[in-house]
Amino acid sequence: MATAYAQPTSALQSPREHFLQPNTPPQPRKHASRQRFAQEFSQCLYDFVIQLLPTAEELAVKEDVRKLLERLIRTIEPDSRLLQFGSTANGFSLRNSDMDLCCLIDSEERLAATDLVNMAGDLLERETKFHVKPLPHARIPIVKLSLDPAPGLPYGIACDIGFENRLALENTRLLMCYAMIDPPRVRTMVLFLKVWSKRRKINSPYKGTLSSYGYVLLVIYFLVHVKSPPVLPNLQVMPPLRPISKEETHLNGHNIWFFDDIELLRQRWKSSNTDSVAELLIDFFKFYSREFQYSHGVASIRAGLLTKDSKGWESEYEKGSPRERNRLCIEDPFEVDYNVSRCVTKDGLYTIRGEFMRASRILATRPDRAIVALAQLCEERKEEELVHPLPNNGLFIPPRLTVRYEPVQPVIAPDGVFGAALLCTILPSDVAFTSLTSAGGVPTTAAYGLIALLRLFVTPDDFTSSHYFLGRWRRPAYIATALFNGLVFATQISPFYFPVTAQSFNFAPVILGAVTIFGVLSWYFIPADKWLRREQVLRALRIADEEPYAAGSSAVEGSFASENARYRAESVNGKVKGVDID
Ligand code: GTP
Ligand code: MG
């Protein structure tokens, strides 16, 4: 435990200051333009996110609504309390976020959740102006409420009331604790990703994509288990400061222990990762576009990377429904048998990965002004590109990802015409003919050699989930491939015999040089999207993945402390998990 704590950090800054200035200066090792972009982009992210935080008035209205609903529900269950969970309680709330409320009943004799949902639904329908929709038979029975927009409430209110969902209160508290450890980086990343995923239309479990809760878990998994050194500690494996009984750490058979004395943690622990929020976001997109093992892996913030096999979470279809589960696997922090992303369909996952790739590509190009990158990232996605919503019969039919196939035009490629003309003129010359045929093979050999070299020096540890991943033999295989192709390449571009005369000169390098210059110019002037469209990449990914499957708040940080205190007091057991560190 002693090593888990570094020296105390400096006194806390004011909440706004703290939110705006990461307490960790960017590293000097990065290339200057990259560093400048990261700095500018970080600032853009803070400015962007801050203006999307809920206003004090909105929070006040929501608190009034909560009190009103609590008063009404107490007419059915006098010993009940209505507590906020989800984003309004964990610091990841955006302006006009929905309200997630949980009704706790502090008496032994209480109605079943299904009856409560029906009775509360009737009551709220009678006594309020809310549109009410009870869902008594959902996995977690809830009453859905919504209020139409009004002059003082331009976006209306959406609210879900669940009953006795104590695990949700606990996981909200866990997320809040993670947010409190490093608000400038964690909150900014999460809030930005929430806006981004909503704008890009990939934040809808009902349509086969991922819930906000799922995205938050992906961020925490990345910061705890992927980044090295980690940005966040694993709160669930930190030992308690005093012995704690099993009753205190277990709820409904689930271990809900985590280290929750964040003020103490912040005094004694500091991450040695000094990446700025922009750098983290760039790496986040890169990781989830290319590196996360979607086909076999399970992201667990509790235990790191697990396998689908070990959890028994192979991709499968629900009985009697074409809806698929376990395409993407994210373990719930406490309900470890529960896949938070179980609703993500195959098309949903490809859409999400496509968006991660798009974001990664935008950030890799580092536009001159960071604000341009931000605008491009959050550009609203067209509805037509979405997976289709539920059809009327209630069954979810996962549609194929929309891929536009352009009709094939009967064109004669200009390079074909050029090649044919050239061939006619040079056929009489032996040298020209041999050079030309030799030049035909040179690019192929060079390309194979180049791929091996790039894999060896640029991405030696990528593509680990590939079907043909060679494990520890990959580096020797890259070296052998590069050497062999290098040798063939050298032979192909050498003169036919010495001394070199007009009759023995091999024109292959000249032809290759001309083609290379043409290629470089095309690469420079033609946008990447024209060469390789995102749909093509997604289609390739889809095909590559077929095989394995076939085989097998508060506006600023300051209010966190009071939120945490309230949670400690009001939450399930009201227990204090940390005592004096000394
Ligand atoms: P916004 O509503 O988009 O602001 O985000 P949020 O942070 O409130 O997340 P969301 O509405 O997705 O989830 C609210 C809470 O429901 C989470 O904080 C969890 O406590 C709880 N929850 C538990 N399991 C699930 C799950 O599988 N899906 C979702 N959506 N929520 C879950
Ligand atoms: Mg919510």
From TrEMBL:
Q: What is this protein called?
A: polynucleotide adenylyltransferase
| GO biological process assignments | negative regulation of macromolecule metabolic process; RNA 3'-end processing
Sorted alphabetically, the keyword list is: Cytoplasm, Magnesium, Membrane, Metal-binding, Transferase, Transmembrane, Transmembrane helix
Disordered: annotated span: 1-34
Which CDD domains does this one have?
NT_PAP_TUTase
The organism's taxonomic lineage, starting at the top: Eukaryota, Fungi, Dikarya, Basidiomycota, Agaricomycotina
Q: What's one GO MF term for it?
A: metal ion binding
Origin superkingdom: Eukaryota
- Entry similarity comment: Belongs to the DNA polymerase type-B-like family.
Q: Which Pfam families match?
A: MTPAP-like_central, PAP_assoc
As for subcellular location, the record says:
Cytoplasm
Q: Which PANTHER family match?
A: POLY A POLYMERASE CID PAP -RELATED, POLY(A) RNA POLYMERASE GLD2
Q: Where is the composition biased (Polar residues)?
A: 1-13
Spell out the Gene3D superfamilies in the cross-references.
1.10.1410.10, Beta Polymerase, domain 2
According to the UniProt record, one GO cellular component term is: cytoplasm
Give the enzyme's EC designation: 2.7.7.19
Ranges for domain PAP-associated come to 276-337
Classification via SUPFAM superfamilies = Nucleotidyltransferase (SSF81301), PAP/OAS1 substrate-binding domain (SSF81631)
Record-annotated Poly(A) RNA polymerase mitochondrial-like central palm domain positions: 42-179
